[in-house]
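Structure (tokenized):
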């Protein structure tokens, strides 16, 4: 709307100036043509005393409509001293006494411009002075003539000893002003229509913008109500980062809960066997001790109560793991510093093993993961790579869409060809002769799955093992 208003104003101004300049050029041409036929003798102006010249002068006057009785266009010579018209193109001579002086239009041309003689005409624009006989304005035609503006081209010249005179050629610019008025009306209609269209477009745009947000809000409420587990619908590009952040948070929360449960479950199962053995031994000892005065009886009771307490603690922590809610929004964190810390540590751990540790990870490599989880994930995977490699361990990272792809390669024995995915399961390891609980790869899988990523086991370019991580950014 502002653009239309500015464009309309500029177009109106340039069109008006262009038409006025055209009229000025035409009035200048008329001025030069008419002055070529005028002669000043004995204080009077007239046409050159030649029949051919007089005929040509009449032709020019007729051609330019200088004898218009409605005074739409006129030309006359006026005495600057007393503002008396001493010659006009409509009479080709001094007006007779029968001509009403108010027949002509008089203008205030400005004192600064009307005093100095000039070869080129100067221009003025305005309405004529009020006639001497004000009653003439009662005639609508005369009133309209005095209310419209005129464009004037005037030349000053001095004749001794008669004084200063002005040759004035004027033309009504009512038609130009009417065209400008029509243009203003058209632009006003265009501005009104554009305002209506802009309002309609804004209402429609507001609906289109708000509708996805409402859908997004309803989907989040469904997640709060437990009706769904993640934000799955398609949304505009501006809402994709919010969607990814919420899904990452939900995945992280779900993964954290599962990890807490699995960890405590592993601990409970690990303690179950020794606790059962201790309980059996205590039961046997209790059966052997019959005398209440036997000091072993009190010890048996103490051990029995403590074992019972340990069982209660384990049960309590298992229940707590099912309802814990300690998550928070996880921000993207750089991977490079963690890689360097682990590289320095692992090179010290395996200092007796000569191998090259290559890191091709720039400072822009970031992923949405907790710092402790990141240390545990890369610690497990890099430790495996350093343990099984021969001469090379290489880490590379690059982006694919909204995911950070990290490849951890070594030139060791690689993964089994029959079913490498089994290594991602709990309690399974490739080399059963090595120390460990066989849950390193499974824990890494849980960490990656908790943040909405993916882990793949492939063959490295060095004919060893490649672990490819797909981590959200």
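Design, position by position:
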């Amino acid at each position: 709307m502002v653009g239309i208003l500015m464009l309309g104003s500029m177009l109106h101004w340039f069109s008006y100036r262009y038409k006025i300049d055209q009229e000025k050029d035409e009035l200048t041409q008329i001025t030069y043509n008419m002055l070529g036929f005028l002669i000043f003798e004995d204080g009077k102006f007239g046409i050159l005393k030649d029949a051919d010249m007089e005929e040509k002068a009449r032709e020019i006057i007729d051609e330019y409509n200088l004898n218009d009785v409605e005074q739409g266009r006129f030309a006359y010579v006026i005495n600057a001293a007393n503002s008396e018209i001493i010659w006009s193109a409509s009479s080709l001579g001094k007006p007779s006494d029968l001509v009403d002086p108010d027949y002509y239009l008089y203008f205030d041309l400005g004192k600064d411009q009307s005093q100095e003689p000039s070869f080129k005409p100067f221009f003025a624009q305005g309405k004529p002075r009020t006639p001497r006989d004000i009653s003439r304005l009662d005639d609508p035609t005369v009133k309209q003539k005095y209310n419209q503006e005129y464009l004037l081209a005037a030349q000053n010249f001095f004749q001794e000893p008669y004084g200063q005179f002005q040759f004035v050629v004027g033309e009504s610019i009512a038609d130009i002003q009417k065209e400008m008025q029509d243009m203003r009306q058209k632009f006003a209609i265009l501005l009104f229509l554009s305002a209506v269209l802009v309002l309609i477009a804004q209402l429609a745009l507001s609906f289109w913008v708000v509708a996805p947000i409402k859908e997004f809000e309803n989907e989040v409420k469904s997640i709060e109500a437990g009706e769904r587990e993640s934000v799955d619908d398609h949304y505009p590009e501006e809402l994709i980062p919010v969607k990814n952040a919420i899904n990452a948070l939900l995945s992280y929360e779900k993964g954290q809960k599962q990890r807490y449960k699995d960890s405590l479950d592993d601990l409970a199962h690990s303690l179950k066997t020794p606790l059962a053995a201790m309980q059996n031994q205590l039961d046997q000892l209790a059966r052997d001790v019959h005398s209440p005065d036997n000091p072993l009886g009190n010890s048996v009771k103490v051990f029995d109560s403590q074992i019972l307490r340990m069982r209660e603690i384990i049960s309590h922590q298992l229940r707590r793991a099912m309802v814990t809610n300690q998550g928070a929004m996880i921000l993207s964190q750089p991977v490079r510093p963690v890689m360097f810390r682990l590289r320095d540590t692992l090179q010290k751990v395996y200092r007796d093993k000569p191998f090259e540790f290559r890191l091709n990870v720039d400072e822009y490599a970031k992923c949405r993961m907790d710092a402790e989880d990141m240390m545990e994930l890369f610690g497990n995977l890099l430790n495996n790579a350093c343990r099984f490699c021969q001469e090379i361990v290489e880490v590379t990272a690059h982006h694919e869409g909204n995911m950070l792809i990290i490849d951890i390669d070594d030139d060791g024995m690689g993964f089994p060809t029959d079913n490498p995915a089994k290594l991602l399961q709990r309690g399974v390891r490739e080399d059963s002769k090595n120390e460990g609980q066989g849950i390193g790869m499974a824990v890494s899988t849980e960490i990656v799955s908790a943040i909405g990523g993916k882990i793949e086991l492939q063959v490295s370019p060095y004919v060893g093992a490649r672990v490819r991580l797909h981590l959200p950014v």
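Reviewer-requested clarification: The chain has a mean pLDDT of 80. Residues 85 and 101 are 8 Å apart (CA to CA).
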